[in-house]
Amino acid sequence: MTKLKWGMIGGGEGSQIGPAHRLGAQADGRFAFIAGALDHRPEEGRAYARRLGIAADRAYGDWTEMLAGERDRDDRIDLVTVATPNATHFEITKAFLEAGFNVLCEKPMTMTVEEGEEIVRVAERSGRICAVNYCYSAYPMVRQARAMVRNGEIGKVRLVVANFSHGHHGDAADADNPRVRWRYDPAMAGISGQFADCGIHAMHMASFVCDDEVENLSADFVSTIPSRELEDDAMVNFRMSGGTVGRLWTSSVAIGRQHGFDIQVFGETGGLRWASEQPNQLLYTPVGGRTQIIEKGEAGLHEDARRLSRVSIAHPEGFPLAVANIYCDLADAIAGETRDGLPDAAAGVRSMAAVHAAVASARKDGAWTDARPPMFRQE
Amino acid sequence: MTKLKWGMIGGGEGSQIGPAHRLGAQADGRFAFIAGALDHRPEEGRAYARRLGIAADRAYGDWTEMLAGERDRDDRIDLVTVATPNATHFEITKAFLEAGFNVLCEKPMTMTVEEGEEIVRVAERSGRICAVNYCYSAYPMVRQARAMVRNGEIGKVRLVVANFSHGHHGDAADADNPRVRWRYDPAMAGISGQFADCGIHAMHMASFVCDDEVENLSADFVSTIPSRELEDDAMVNFRMSGGTVGRLWTSSVAIGRQHGFDIQVFGETGGLRWASEQPNQLLYTPVGGRTQIIEKGEAGLHEDARRLSRVSIAHPEGFPLAVANIYCDLADAIAGETRDGLPDAAAGVRSMAAVHAAVASARKDGAWTDARPPMFRQE
Amino acid sequence: MTKLKWGMIGGGEGSQIGPAHRLGAQADGRFAFIAGALDHRPEEGRAYARRLGIAADRAYGDWTEMLAGERDRDDRIDLVTVATPNATHFEITKAFLEAGFNVLCEKPMTMTVEEGEEIVRVAERSGRICAVNYCYSAYPMVRQARAMVRNGEIGKVRLVVANFSHGHHGDAADADNPRVRWRYDPAMAGISGQFADCGIHAMHMASFVCDDEVENLSADFVSTIPSRELEDDAMVNFRMSGGTVGRLWTSSVAIGRQHGFDIQVFGETGGLRWASEQPNQLLYTPVGGRTQIIEKGEAGLHEDARRLSRVSIAHPEGFPLAVANIYCDLADAIAGETRDGLPDAAAGVRSMAAVHAAVASARKDGAWTDARPPMFRQE
Amino acid sequence: MTKLKWGMIGGGEGSQIGPAHRLGAQADGRFAFIAGALDHRPEEGRAYARRLGIAADRAYGDWTEMLAGERDRDDRIDLVTVATPNATHFEITKAFLEAGFNVLCEKPMTMTVEEGEEIVRVAERSGRICAVNYCYSAYPMVRQARAMVRNGEIGKVRLVVANFSHGHHGDAADADNPRVRWRYDPAMAGISGQFADCGIHAMHMASFVCDDEVENLSADFVSTIPSRELEDDAMVNFRMSGGTVGRLWTSSVAIGRQHGFDIQVFGETGGLRWASEQPNQLLYTPVGGRTQIIEKGEAGLHEDARRLSRVSIAHPEGFPLAVANIYCDLADAIAGETRDGLPDAAAGVRSMAAVHAAVASARKDGAWTDARPPMFRQE
C-alpha cells in the first residue's frame, strides 16, 4: 500500500487546524505529507514546512508558487488541503481543481452562492474530487445512522432536529477579545455569525443523515450581546425535498453547553439520537419498542460504520479520528472507489445557499425562503 | 395542624388524574378528602365517592349539586379541584370562585382567552385562590432555578430553551385509536393539538423560571401523520417582556423520547439546565467556570426548593410529589401565607392566549403575533 | 374500599422517618392513621399525635400503653409500624406480634441473631405479617428485575454486584458531630457501622433480586477516619445458595457519590443494571445483544412492576413512593393476598446474621464465614 | 522537528495491535516508521513491512535479525516497540535494552517476577527507557486526576476503587472459540486470566493516579463458566504504602458492560471519578461541595493534561490518541525531557508481582499477601 502524496495550504505554525489535518491525513498511514505552503508569510511558511520534514523544493512560499511547482511534476501530490482564511477558499480551490488536483477544502467552501456553483461546475468538468471538511459526518455512528435511514430501518423520515449550541462566547466581558469578536463582525465573518460557523454543520448533518436536501427555511436570528452585529443565537425551521420537517438551534451563548452538537431523526417506524460529546453510541428506538444503545464496534453494524472504526467496541474514538475518516474516504475515492459519504462541492454550495437564505429570512421576520442554490432548483 | 377540607370534581373511577390528585392532596396530610362529584354519571360518581370514604351527604351527583350542597355548610370545603373535561373548566371554576371557594383547576383553565380573562377578574373580585395545575413548576429543583434567576445568580436572562417532546403518538397504525385520536381532532381538542397539550407546559415553565412573561411569538406547526388535523409537532420562537429570547420545541412523534421535557436558561453570568426525567438535579454553570451538579436536598438551597422536598439528598422524589407540592403551596396560601409560586389564573389565561397566538402565527407562515391576553397588553 | 387502620410507634415530631411512613401509608389511601405512640416523652407524643388528627383515646404515651389500649378494641389497628430506636425493635415487634397485630418494623429488625430467630418463630406461630422496611426492594424496576430473574430471562445468575456508597460522612471535621458520630460508636450503633447501616440494604437487594440467599462471606472493613471505632468502608465477597458469586462495596467516605446504591446482576444469558438515583430505568442486555432501556410504565412489564407504579411512562416516581409500595403490599397481604415481595422476618434475621458474619470475618483477615442464621443452616 | 526513528516487532498483518501502535507513533508526527520484524513468519513479515513503506534492508525476518541489523547502523532506530506474544516479551526487551535501544513493551512486560526484576536492572544499567504500554494512564483527564492528587487537591487519599469489567466473554456457547478460550487456559495465558488481562490495568491506574504503590492484597477469583481453568471474575482488596485502601473488581462476564473501566479516588478533602467510556470528563467533588465536571481542554488544567490534548474543549479524544500520548511522552523522554508519567519497568514488574500475589491469595481463600516484587520490599 503505497502512501498517497499530500500537500497543504495554510495550517501554519500555531494554528489549530494544521495539526488536525496532519494528524487526520497521516494517522492511518494513507498519506505522506510532502508539500506545503503553510503560511501567508512566505519565509515562515517555508521554514515551518522544512521543520515538518518537507523537502526544500516543495516547501512553498504561497499557493500560486505551490500550484506552479506541483503542476508539472511527475510525482505531483494526489491531494491538496485548503485551510486558508475563508475568503481565499474559492480562488485556491478553483485553481487547483482546474489544474487537475483533488482538493479537500475547509468550510465554508466559498463566500457566495455564485462562487459555490462555479466550484461545482469546475469540479464536474475536471472529474477531480472536491471535498468539503464536514468532518462530523465521518464519525462511525453518524455513518451508521445514515445507513439505517437509507436502509429503511426507521421508515420514511418525518422530522429531524439538529442542535449545535455552546456557551464559549457567552461572556460579554470577553466579547471584544479579537479571538472572539471577528466572528460577529461582518467585515471579517461575512453575513452570518453563529449560524455560518456552527449551525451549518448541524444543517449538513441533517441532510447527510436523512440523505435528503433542505428546500426552504425560516430563520430567527438574534444577537444576545448588543455589541455584536451578527447573530450569536439562531433558530431555523426547514423543510426537505422529501417532506421531512427540520428544526435547528444553534447558539454560542448557551453557557454550560460545551460542544452541544446533536441530532435526532424521527421516522415512521423508529427514532435515532446521537450526540457529539458521546460519539461512540447511537440510540435507536423502534416504534413501540425499547431504546437500544448501538455501540461503535459492535457486531453487525453497517459497513460504512464498521470500516471507519479502528479499535474494538467501547474503546472511544474521538474528533481527530473523525477528521482522519475523511482522509480515509479521500484515499479510497482517489483509488477509484466510491465517493459516497464524502461531503462534496454540492454540499458546499448548498450550505452557502442555506446561510444566505437564513440571513434573508431573518431579515424578513422569518419569511420562508428558498434555501437551494439556483442550479439545484430545477430538480 | 388541622387538615384542610378538600373536594374534587371529576377524577372518577379508572381515570389517571383522580388518583394523582388524591395522592397529591393527601400525601403530606394537609388535606382531608371529604366531598366529591367524581363522575358525569351521578350514581356512579356517588357510589365511587362513598367507596373512597366520602360521607353520603357529600357524595354528589354533579357539580351543581355539590356547589349547592357545600355553599351553605359551616364546614364547607376549603378547596375544590376541577378535573373535568376541558370544555367545562370555565363554567365550574367561575361558579365556585363566585361562591367563595378556592379552586385548583386542571389545565387548560378555559377554552378561550375571553373566558380566561373573566376568570382572572372573578378571582380578583372574590379574593379567592384560583390556581392552575402547572405541576412541573413545583419540582424542588425548578423552584431552585427560579430562585437563582430571581436572585441574579445567572445575571439578566438572555435566552431560554424549553422542550417537551415525546414519541408516544408516533405510531401511525395507532393514530386512529380513540385514546390518541381525539387529541388531534379539533372537535374534541380545540384549536391546537400537541402545543396546547404539552408545549404549553414548557411555555409556562419558561415564564415561571425566568420570572417573566411571553410577549409575542412565531410558530411553525406540522402534522407529521397526515390523518391528523391538528399539529403533532411545533416549534415556537418567542420574546419575553424583559427581552429574553425563547425557543420551544414540542412533539409527540419523537420516537424514543419518553418524557422529554427540559429547560435551559442562559443569562449574562451563567446557565441552568434541568430535565424532567432526572428532576432531582439541576446543572449550573457560571460563565467561564465548570458545570456544577446541584442536588435536591443539598445544604444551602433556596428556601423554596428546600421546603418542597421531603427526603434527604439524592433520594429521588418524582412527579406525584410535584403534584403534592402544588397542594402544599395551596395549603400555605389558604392559611394566608404567600401565593407566590402558585400558578394562578393569570398564568392560565396567558397560556390560553399563547395557544391562540401560536395557532394564528402558524396559519400565517410564522408571522410574529402578540401572545398576551388583551387585559395584559397595557403593561 | 375501606381504609385499613394503622398506627405508628416512634416517628415523632422532627424525625425524618415519621413523615416518610405517614406519607407511605396514606399516599394511596389504603391506610387511615388512627393510633400512635410517637415519642419517648409521653406528653409530647400524645400532643403530637393529636395534632396529627389522632383521637385522644388513641394518642398513647408509650408502646406498652398502646398495646394495652389497642389489644382489646373491636376496631383495633390492622397494622403497626415500629420506627423506634434500633435496640427496642425486638421487644416491641415481638409483643405486638404475640398480641396478634401485623407489624412493619424498621431495619434492623433486631440487634442479635438470636432475637431475630425468635421473631421469625413468633411471627410463624402468630400467623401475622412481620415485615421489615427494606423499601428499596419496592421500586417498580427492582421488582421488574426480580421478575425477569425468576422468569429465566437472564438465565442462571452467575454474579451479582451491589454497591451502596456515599460520601456524606467523609468530612473528618464533621466526624464529631453527634448526628454523625453515633453511627461509628459501638456503644450506640452496635457491632457494625456502614455495613449495618447501608451495606445491608445492598445485601438484601442482592438476595431479593436474585431470589436466593447468602450462604457465606468474606469481609474487609476499614475505618478511614481514625477516630472511628466502627467501619466507614467495607468490601464483602459472598456466595449464595445457588452458587451465585456476590461482590458488595459500601462506603460513607466516597466523597461525590450522593446515594450510590446500585445493583448489577449477570446471568448466563443476560445482564441487568439498576441505580437508585435513576430508579425508573432498568438496563437489560441479552448476551450478544444490545443494551435496552426498560422504562417504568412501559407496556409489557411484569405484573409486580406494573402494579407498583402510579403514573405513566417516564413520569418519575421516587423514594417516598417506594415506601408507599411497601404499604401497598402490606394492604394486599392483610387482605389475604400474597405476601410474596414483602421483606419478612426471615429477611430480617438473615441480614442480622450477615452483619455478624461480616464483623467476624473482618476481624479474622477476611476468613470465609457462614452468613446464615443457625435456623436456616439445615436447608 | 526531525522525526525520531521507530521500529516495531510483532503487530503483523491482521493484528489489532499493529495498527494501534502505528497510529499512536505517527499521529503526531513525532516518529517515522522505518524498521520492523512484523511477523513470526519471516517472509510474510518482510513483505508486509515493505508494503507499509519500510525499506528492504530494514524489513526484517525476525527480532534477532532486526537487532543485528539495527545495532550497528549510524541511523539506528530511536525506539523499538515489542508487540509479540506475551511469553517472548522478556527476551526481546532485555536484548534490545542491552544493545542500547529504548523500548516500549506491550503488557505484560514479563511472565515472572524474576524476569521483571531483571528487566528493571538491565534498564537501569543501560540508562535506556523501558516503558510498558499502560496506555489508559495517558488519557488527559487521568493525568489531570494524578496531578490533582499530587497537588493535594483532594488531600491525603483514603480510598481508591478501580473496576475493569466487561461482558464480552460471558457467552458460554462462545467459550470454546479459540479467540476467547486461550485467555482462560493456563497453558497459553499463564497463571491468571481476567485479572492479568484487564484487572492489572485497573491496578496500575490506581497506583498511577494515587502516586503510590500496592503493598499487599487479598483476592477472590472465580470461574463462572465451569470449563474455564482460570478466573473470569475477580475481586481484589489491597493496601498501598501510604495507607490507602483499595478495591478492585474485574470481570469478563458482566454482560452489558462494554468497557467498564473506571476509577474513583476518595481523599480527605475531595473525590475524583473517571470512566474510560467517557474519558474526556473528570468528576471532582470537594468535601461538602457540589460535584464539578472538569472538561478536557478547559482553561486552567494541569500541564500534563493540557499538553496531551490536541483539540479544544469537548471535542472528544479517544483511545487511539491515548496510545499516541504514550508515544508523545516517549519522544519527549528520548529528547531528554522528563520520564515522569511514562509507565516504566518498575511498573511492569510491580504488575507481575501483583498478579502472582493475587493468584496465591485466591488459592489460600483470600489470605493477605505481599504484592511487592522482592527488590522493592526494603523500601
Structure, described:
Chains A, B, C, D: Residues 5-134 form the Gfo/Idh/MocA-like oxidoreductase N-terminal domain. Chains A, B, C, D: One of its GO terms (molecular function) is nucleotide binding. Four copies of one chain form a homotetramer. By secondary structure, chain A is of the alpha/beta class. Chain A has two domains: 4-135, Rossmann fold (3-Layer(aba) Sandwich); 136-312 and 345-363, 2-Layer Sandwich (Dihydrodipicolinate Reductase, domain 2), CATH 3.30.360. Helices cover 34% and strands 23% of the residues of chain A. The first copy, chain A, has helices at residues 17-26, 42-51, 63-71, 89-98, 113-126, 140-150, 178-181, 186-189, 194-210, 303-307, 319-334, 345-363; strands at 4-10, 31-37, 79-83, 102-105, 130-132, 157-165, 214-222, 233-240, 245-251, 260-267, 270-275, 281-286, 291-295, 369-370. A nine-stranded mixed beta sheet of chain A has the order 13-12-11-10-6-9-8-7-14. In chain A, strands 2-1-3-4-5 form a five-stranded parallel beta sheet, with helices on both faces. In chain A, strand 1 (4-10), helix 1 (17-26) and strand 2 form a beta-alpha-beta unit. The longest helix of chain A is centred in the C-terminal third of the chain and has 19 residues, at 345-363. The first copy, chain A, starts with a strand and ends in a 9-residue tail after the last strand. Chains in contact: A-B, A-C, A-D, B-C, B-D, C-D. Chains B and D meet through strand 13 of B and strand 13 of D.
